[in-house]
Amino acid sequence: MVRTSCLWYVLLLGETAWGKVYFSETFDDSWANRWTLSTWKDSEKEKMGKWVLSSGRFFADSLEDRGLQTAEIMKFYGVSAAFEPFSNEGKELFIQYQAKYEKDLGCGGGYLKVGPKQEDLTSFGEPTPYHIMFGPDQCNADKRTHLIFSYRGKNYLKKSELPYKQEGEGVSHLYRLHLKPDNSVRVEVDGEQIYEGSLKDDWDMLPAKEIADPKDKKPEGWVDQEKIPDPSDAKPKDWATEAKIVDSAAKKPEEWDDDEDGEWEPPKIDNPAFKGEWSPRMIANPAYSGKWIARMIPNPDFVDNPDLYKYDNIGYVGFDVWQVKGGTIFDNIILTDSAAEADEFAKKWKVLREEEKAQIAKAEAAQQEAFEKAKAARAARAKAEEESGKKASRKASKAEAKSASEEL
């Protein structure tokens, strides 16, 4: 649901405690009235994957804990929701949502896109421009938490990848991105900070402030070879450099005919004394000048931008992913300028996560108990079969003994 007014929060907690919610969604039976299914990959050969409401295998409340789930395998999925466009200028922006992998995806994404207003969201997909892409992504062992920002029409990945935190099937994870007007960024997963830094430092959105002076040249006579061969080092006289030698024990076969077979040459064998190619030891170069580096000068192309964080037209939120196995459940999405609003949504996740973990532990205990019972039953059957075999053997022995006695 889209909520443009938080008056009831203000009445309860005061105007300074709560901010503005630009968009929120908890997914109920009317979700399709607010979300647009994408058809950008629909064709004769393939169809977009289906979305369904599901609470998953483990939940606290079957209705309240329902989210939007990818319901098929080997599919592209696209769904998005529009809202009244807004700007985050001069404000903090919190983007938060839940993702639960019901099974290991193998390969697939679980990230959220937030972007500018679109005229037609039915075409929402990979080519659609976005401002921010945030959330888990994996392809087999290659795993990360994506965080991509768009700047002047180009998408910028973070210089170093954020850790992947989506381990644990059947457990909901909470993703929170906090973007501030000072261009700083904070990322939390499950309430734990996994990154805090700056758009200016950790994304290549701006040119470097300094560059190597192209006019600066390495001085003549500059020696940048750190090690040289030791001129006093000589190859030992007994150093064998031949890998193969003539087999002195070999004899020309009696049937060998030089006229017909040519001149006989004894075969070669591995040289047991071979030590490999000799090279003198390396020593420090007394003339070494050090590693030469051109001096740094101000980059003439650098123009600072104190508003890297700012997006003037934020108008949709959506999921555009490919999944091999499907089964991912997305829920409790919120875009707000208030940490208190985001925390309120996080309460739902905390309750759900504790129940999921408790039910998973219970299911694992029941599975272990069933395994132990089956193991005990197999052992009992094996023992009974062994005892039965022993009785049959004793009975047969008695019968043989009686038969032998009668023959006598």
TrEMBL record:
Coiled coil: none annotated. Keywords: Calcium, Chaperone, Disulfide bond, Endoplasmic reticulum, Lectin, Metal-binding, Repeat, Signal, Zinc. It is found in: Endoplasmic reticulum lumen. An alpha-D-glucoside binds at Y111, K113, Y130, D137, D320. One of its GO terms (cellular component) is endoplasmic reticulum lumen. One of its GO terms (molecular function) is unfolded protein binding. The keyword Protein transport does not apply. Residues 397-408 have a biased composition (Basic and acidic residues). Residues 1-19 form the signal peptide. Residues 211-239, 374-408 are annotated as: Disordered. Pfam families: Calreticulin (PF00262). Disulfide bonds join C107-C139. GO terms for biological process: ERAD pathway; protein folding. Its main location: endoplasmic reticulum. Belongs to the calreticulin family. This is Calreticulin. It comes from Symbiodinium microadriaticum. The lineage of its organism: Eukaryota, Sar, Alveolata, Dinophyceae, Suessiales. The gene is crtA.
